[in-house]
Amino acid sequence: MSDGLVFVRRIRRTPYSNRVEQAGVRGYSVYNHMILPKSFGMSVEEAYWHLREHVQLWDVSVQRQVEIIGPDAARLVQWMTPRDLRQAEVGRCYYVPIVDQSGGMLNDPVLLKLADDRYWLSIADSDLLLYVKGLIIGGGFDARAFEPDVNPLAIQGPKAEDLMADLFGAHIRELKFYRYTHIDVLGSRQIIARSGFSSMDGFEIYLADRDLAEPLWDMIMSAGEKYNIAPGGPNQIDRIEGGLLGYGNEMTMDNNPLEMGFGKFCNLTGDIDCIGREALLNIQNAKPKRHIRGVSFGNVACPICSTPWPVYVGAEQVGQITSAIWSPRLKTNVGLSLIDADHWDPGTPVSVTFPDGATHSGTVVVLPFA
Amino acid sequence: MSDGLVFVRRIRRTPYSNRVEQAGVRGYSVYNHMILPKSFGMSVEEAYWHLREHVQLWDVSVQRQVEIIGPDAARLVQWMTPRDLRQAEVGRCYYVPIVDQSGGMLNDPVLLKLADDRYWLSIADSDLLLYVKGLIIGGGFDARAFEPDVNPLAIQGPKAEDLMADLFGAHIRELKFYRYTHIDVLGSRQIIARSGFSSMDGFEIYLADRDLAEPLWDMIMSAGEKYNIAPGGPNQIDRIEGGLLGYGNEMTMDNNPLEMGFGKFCNLTGDIDCIGREALLNIQNAKPKRHIRGVSFGNVACPICSTPWPVYVGAEQVGQITSAIWSPRLKTNVGLSLIDADHWDPGTPVSVTFPDGATHSGTVVVLPFA
């Protein structure tokens, strides 16, 4: 479709880009005005199997941080999300849907509480900083928001724990999922979290000193040799199988967190003061219209899903697949789709139509794929 | 640097993408979460000469609109920019810097006043919609903001007027720069403005009906044959020579509109109520620190400027080039750079250092390049 993405300053390089190029990067995506390395020497399938067996190093600098700091920071952060943060603790990560007054999703970042008056929102692909600035200016909050120069590296795969323990000490093994702690990286104090955009075990280092980027990359790649480490990026097969939703792909401003399966992160019965609470309550109290599901379909590999593919039950369109790929493990295509009420039961037979008109029969499944 | 941009729904196709592909697109950029066709069969130089002599059709759907509508729309729009909009008229376009409380630029859209209570902001590459939503929610404005499904086409080049007159009537010749009017497009009423991101004459059709996208593309390409029309996109040589600044390239949140040469769009002496007014007044009243300039340098074509290149006077860094390219007309490289006070006089000798360490001597010039 394209023989070249024209790079300009507007689409930012990362502090790891030189190393990524030396490692033989073959393809990028663009995310938060920055380049996201997607593929190196391996095919998507090869990278998928490698990720499930070994460990990979990903330049996920595109996961930009929105830092909110100040006397009103806690009140502002709580106002931004229906998730109840009153008991939020330093050292923990929180997946927080951000919604507007209508309950439409604006981003779905991971929140790191750094102090009672200081937070990082590790964002998906929309300029959440502009929204926060608007709220601060419009609402007169005594808080400041900015993008710190933090460039995360993800270490993903079943051997990630061994590798991190080798590098940073055995205590890292005790770090639980969605917790973070501090480690010594080349003489500096950096945040490491047990998290990452894969269905495997993994860690993310929130490197806050760009001068250490290349030494850290080199240190991890070198120590990782014994674990068969490879450079990589978020893997589409693993992501879809694992039911990991992508902002801009599965959900946009037109979607609410309840239909996306994030009801457990919406505390609508309590008394927290948050934007969109009334709209979400109304949605919750009405008959649900649709819900996110998996669809397995077809026995030959599908093309890339760059525009949604309609999903039918008989002649009725009941959803649209927004991401899909061939699963070499499940021997079927796996897709993600919102499915209308009355049709979302697991096992419901559906058909999927490609842009060229070809139709494949499929089945609704609950996420994640088995 | 890359052999392929991986397309996903998150990076949106446009209603013209099928036609763009049929026309042989060779490279895209990503802008406002959407694909921007950059190059077709011609080299950048060939496209530059063609643009100066003939007419080109550009898919600039990436120029997304933020529609603001409601009783408080006028007050909100005025609050968002230091440009005095009290006499703003329907039928005119206004370049409006959008700044935060510190005077830092968040976007630099073109404003179309559609009615006293209805506006479009035709945005550069940042999610201005999120900022507007934040202001509305935070400030309690009685207004609504959303992205309408409007997909602009640009018709640029000296023969654009003849072509538009053939298609839409001779009255289009009377349309002045930065004015808009309505035309009949395939039985529907659409907005056409005399504007565009080139230094040439040109028009932009703000197509608000995606079903008409392919017929409109075909109609323009067909009628344009006699004018030697070609598909294209914003041309880097023309843009830099013309001193057209790009948000994300020449300016970011770290820059204020005064240093970018937009002082004429900042009414700081009046009594309008706008965000950042005090900060901009302080900047204006202090000794200016730097100003946007052109730098001509070197007598062999420079590489692509994907990270800023430092500009020196002697051993002192006085600026950084953020966009640069070889000008086949001026027989020198042309670059855009903020230049520190005391060094920005036209004719000041400077040197430019590339990432590989090579240094080229150059000269400060006033924009646009002659």
Explain the overall architecture.
The structure is a homodimer of 370-residue chains. Chain A has 370 residues and is an alpha+beta fold. Chain A folds into three domains: 135 residues, Gyrase A, domain 2 (2-Layer Sandwich), CATH 3.30.1360.120; 82 residues, Alpha-Beta Plaits, CATH 3.30.70; 123 residues, Probable tRNA modification gtpase trme, domain 1 (Gyrase A, domain 2), CATH 3.30.1360. The first copy, chain A, has eight helices and 21 strands. A six-stranded mixed beta sheet of chain A has the order 12-13-14-11-3-15, with helices on both faces. In chain A, strands 16-19-18-17-20-21 form a six-stranded antiparallel beta barrel. Chains A and B meet through strand 1 and helix 4 of A and strand 1 and helix 4 of B.
Radius of gyration of chain A (CA) equals: 21 Å
Unreliable stretches of chain A:
none
The string of secondary-structure elements of chain A, in order, is HEEHEEHEEEEEHEEHEEEHEHHEEEEEE
Strand content of chain A: 25-35%
Q: Please state the second-level CATH architecture of the largest domain in chain A.
A: 2-Layer Sandwich
User: What share of the residues of chain A lie within helices?
Assistant: 10-25%
Assigned CATH class of the largest domain in chain A:
Alpha Beta
Number of domains of chain A: 3
CATH homology group of the largest domain in chain A: Probable tRNA modification gtpase trme, domain 1
Give me the number of helical elements of chain A: 8
Here the CATH topology of the largest domain in chain A equals Gyrase A, domain 2
Span from first to last CA of chain A?
Answer: 33 Å
- How is the largest sheet of chain A built, in terms of strand order? 12-13-14-11-3-15
Overall mean pLDDT of chain A: 95
